[in-house]
Structures are given as C-alpha cells and as structure tokens.
C-alpha cells in the first residue's frame, strides 16, 4: 500500500530537496543527506515501521566526495576522485538556507532536529556536531569513520552540542577487506561510540549482517527510527 505523501520539492543552490511533511504539529525534523534519489524509499520504510510522526528533509544532488568530506584526503581507490573537504561550506548552506526553508513549511516547531546519513553522509552527520549546535540527535549508518584523522579530530576538539542520542551501525563484513584504510572501520566506529558514551550521550551501536552495500534503505530507516 502506497501512502499518500505530503511532500514538497525544492531546489536550493543546485541541491534537490524533498521534504516529507508530517500532519502532526511539532513533529521531529530529521535531515537525511542522500547519495542518489529523493529518499522516498527510506520514508516509506519508516512509515512501514510505524514512524509516522516525522518531518523528513532529504537533500540530494550532493557533490558527494566534496560536500560530505571534512578536509582533503586522497582517494582510497585509484580510479576515484579525492575527497576535497567541502563539508563546512555545505553545512552553512544546509543550516542557513535549506533548514530555514524547511522549518517555514512544516507544522509548528520541531520537537527536536536530527541529522542522519549513510556512508560519507554518516561521517558528515558526526562532523556536524562539532560545527553547529542545531542538531539534537545524530544517526550514522555505515559511516566512513575510517576517514583520515577523524577519530583524532573528534577527541581533540570540543563539540558544539552533545546530542542526547547517537546511533551508529555497520555491516558485520565491512571490515573484511584488503583495503588498509577501510579495514579500520569497525574498530574506529566502536572506539567513537565508546567515546561519546563516556561523554554522556545515549549511544546505540548495531552490527547488521552484510557488507557496506547490503540493505542500505532498511539500515537507513532503522537508524533514523533509533533516534526518534
């Protein structure tokens, strides 16, 4: 059964934005940065899980290796682009323009605002808490926490706001790789989840069956559900 979607489509600075609006007043607002598509499959999965009181703000057409990376890092594969460190610039656009517009369109004032993402967008979601106090909750699904010096950055710097809930997940086969950088992902994800626990956040860490590309829609929805 398809649910009648109360959705708005917007274009802001070449980003393609889809806002799935709740009919409830003051429903939470969750930002989900996506690699492709408009997030409808994730929204439907959330509805099927009973998460109906949610405003889901999906941002697409992202320059993935630029907008989601906190600083420069050479590519981990020979044929791919380097990571060019555009996260600060994109975060300003997200907060100053995209989020402001979304808040005008939803019913009431969101009970809380969260940020969620898969892969590099999961890295970006964690990085955002060091740059802005806008987000109350964070979900990082199969986050690229192997990113060069990222764990060190988190431990050395002061967050702008410690989220009251942080969710991390990973596929149980993600660390089974020959790539020396990607190999570290499980250790680093566990290390970071323990660190935020010590700081006092409610942290959930979940291992899912499969590799990085298994059940991405379901895993994304599960992560968002966990912070609602």
Model description:
The chain is of the alpha/beta class. Helices cover 33% and strands 23% of the residues. It contains seven helices and ten strands. It has helices at residues 40-48, 64-67, 87-105, 120-128, 150-156, 185-199, 216-227; strands at residues 7-12, 15-20, 29-33, 55-60, 72-73, 83-84, 113-118, 137-141, 165-171, 202-208. Strand 9, helix 6 (185-199) and strand 10 (202-208) form a beta-alpha-beta unit. Helix 1 crosses helix 7. It is globular and about 45 Å long.
Q: What is the rounded Rg?
A: 17 Å
Low-confidence stretches: none
Contiguous helical run count: 7
Tell me about the largest β-sheet: 8 strands, mixed
- Give the full name of the CATH homologous superfamily: Alpha/Beta hydrolase fold, catalytic domain
- Widest β-sheet, arrangement of strands: 1-2-4-3-7-8-9-10
Strand content: 15-25%
Indicate the CATH architecture.
3-Layer(aba) Sandwich
CATH topology name, in short, is Rossmann fold
- Category from helices, strands and their pairing: alpha/beta
| Number of domains as seen in the coordinates | 1
What string gives the helices and strands in order? EEEHEHEEHEHEHEHEH
Distance between the termini: 23 Å
State the share of residues found in helices, binned by percent. 25-40%
Q: Using the alpha-carbon principal axes, give the shape.
A: globular
Classified by CATH, the class is Alpha Beta
Average pLDDT level: 94
Query: How many DSSP-defined strands?
Result: 10
């Amino acid at each position: 059964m398809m649910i009648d979607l109360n959705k708005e489509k917007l274009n802001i600075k070449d980003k393609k934005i889809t806002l799935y609006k709740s009919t409830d007043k003051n429903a939470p607002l969750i930002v989900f940065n996506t690699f492709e598509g408009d997030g409808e499959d994730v929204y439907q999965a959330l509805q099927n899980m009973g998460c109906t009181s949610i405003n889901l703000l999906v941002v697409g057409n992202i320059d993935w290796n630029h907008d989601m990376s906190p600083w420069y890092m050479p590519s981990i594969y020979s044929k791919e682009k380097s990571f060019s460190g555009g996260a600060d610039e994109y975060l300003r656009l997200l907060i100053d323009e995209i989020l402001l517009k979304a808040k005008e369109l939803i019913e009431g004032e969101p009970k809380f605002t969260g940020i969620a993402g898969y892969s590099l967008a999961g890295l970006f979601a964690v990085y955002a808490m060091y740059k802005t106090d806008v987000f109350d909750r964070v979900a990082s699904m199969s986050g690229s926490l192997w990113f060069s010096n990222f764990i060190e950055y988190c431990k050395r710097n002061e967050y702008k706001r410690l989220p009251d809930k942080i969710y991390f997940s990973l596929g149980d086969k993600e660390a089974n790789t020959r790539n020396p950088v990607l190999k570290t992902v499980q250790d680093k994800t566990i290390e970071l989840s323990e660190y935020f626990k010590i700081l006092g956040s409610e942290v959930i860490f979940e291992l899912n069956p499969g590799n990085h590309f298994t059940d991405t829609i379901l895993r994304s929805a599960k992560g968002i559900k966990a912070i609602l």
